[in-house]
Amino acid sequence: MRLVRSPLLPAVHGFSTRQGGVSTGRYASLNVGARWGDTEGNVQENRRRLASDGGFALQQLICARQVHGATLLRIDGRSAEELANREADALIATDPGRAVGVYTADCVPLLMADGRGRVAAVHAGWRGTVARIAVAALEGLLEIGAHKRDFRVALGPAIGPCCFEVGEEVAAQFEHLPGAVARSPSARPHVDLRRANLELLLGAGLSREQIDLAAPCTMCERERFFSFRRDGGQIGQMLSFIVAG
Ligand SMILES: [Zn+2]
After folding, report:
1. How far, in Å, from the CA of 194 to the mean position of ligand 1?
2. What is the distance between the alpha carbons of residues 34 and 44, in angstroms, rounded to a whole number?
3. Cα 51–242–121 angle (5° rounding)?
4. Do 219 and 108 meet the contact criterion of CB atoms below 8 Å apart?
5. In this predicted model, what pLDDT tens digit does every residue of 67-108 receive, in sequence order?
6. Is 81 in contact with 230 (CB distance < 8 Å)?
7. Near ion ligand 1, which residues have CB within 5 Å?
């Protein structure tokens, strides 16, 4: 299984691709999401493979119900039962071995680590980006003792500015972020979600060297990634995870 990893992050982590799983058809092959169809057996096997290759224990993985909002959830000291079905788009963990993850298929997954065991996983689609979910996660980590200078952030595979065409009403909400909107006379505006999140993090006090933006576009690379914009609903989902401690 080929996971996308960032050389910048000082924690066990990975961004899954669609490769290396057992699902077929629109879910082929490494679908780890259970929300959009697919058989439960396939999803379970895919998740088992991801945990095995990714280096974390599946029972230690916490994900939330993602709602394109700005809610942050700290999972420490809480059981999986307490956390089940909680709505959040950013998760923070510090207990050694605990893993947090977000599901995506075009939205931006952000993984954060401070090198001292504190980690965060963030789901930022365009609404979450506008709601500054990445900054909420950063501030959440600062509140529990992280220092800005120690932060490392990797933005994973997501729909790129090449493919993310939007309406004017969406573009207008990114206009204040330098480089986030590209316009041409012949096409509708295009938004660069990773660039927008970069600008938010820089605005919050991180420096460019602390942020890895190198991941590819999910919509361009059909063989490697699921893309909601490209293929519509009822497709597979990818998981981005990071392990605390
Ligand atoms: Zn693209």
Report:
1. 12
2. 9
3. 125
4. no
5. 999 999 999 988 878 887 899 999 999 999 999 999 999 999
6. no
7. 160, 162-163, 217, 219-220
Is residue 241 within 8 A of residue 54, CB to CB? The reply is yes
Beta-carbon count within 10 A of 128 CB: 27
Element (H, E) at 197: helix 193-203
Closest CA to 164 of 136, 133, 121, 195: 195
- The CATH code of the domain at 13-243 is 3.60.140.10
Tokens linked to 133: 């979910």
Q: Is residue 98 within 8 Å of residue 76, measured between CB atoms?
A: yes
Q: Output the CA 144–ligand 1 centroid distance in Å.
A: 37
Phi and psi at 14, nearest 5°, equal -175, 155
Please tell me whether the overall predicted TM-score, pTM, comes out greater than 0.90 for this model.
yes
Find the 28 Cα to ligand 1 centroid distance in Å. Answer: 20
Give SS3 for 133: helix
CA distance 47 to 234: 18
CA atoms of 93 and 95, how far apart (whole Å): 6
Which tens digits make up the pLDDT trace of 198-209? 999 999 999 999
Query: CA-to-CA distance for 62 and 242, rounded, in angstroms?
Result: 10
- Separation in Å, CA 235 to CA 69, 100, 123, 143: 22, 22, 18, 37
C-beta separation of 148 from 127 below 8 A: no
